[in-house]
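Let us practice reading a record.
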Amino acid sequence: MSKSLKEKNENKVVQARINKELVDEAEDIFNDLGIDRSTAMRIFYQQVVWNNGLPFEMKRPEVPNEETVKALEEDLTNASSYSSSEELWKELGI
């Protein structure tokens, strides 16, 4: 069902609580781009509609797997050290 012209021209107020530091950093960028906060939000919303989802890939932060965690926790007191790259290459047989 198509929206009437009046419905298409109605505006809604969108509010969000966002950390002040993040807002300030983002608004510095908006200013550099010559747009205000409202324009940035309209662009974001339009991109969501055009992309039929968020206009960027969203992933969870990478969490190290069990093997990586073990390697990070490994005791390095017996690790080899080298006084030069040549010494390292020699031990590696390169």
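A brief commentary: The helical segments are 5-9, 20-33, 37-51, 66-73, 85-92.
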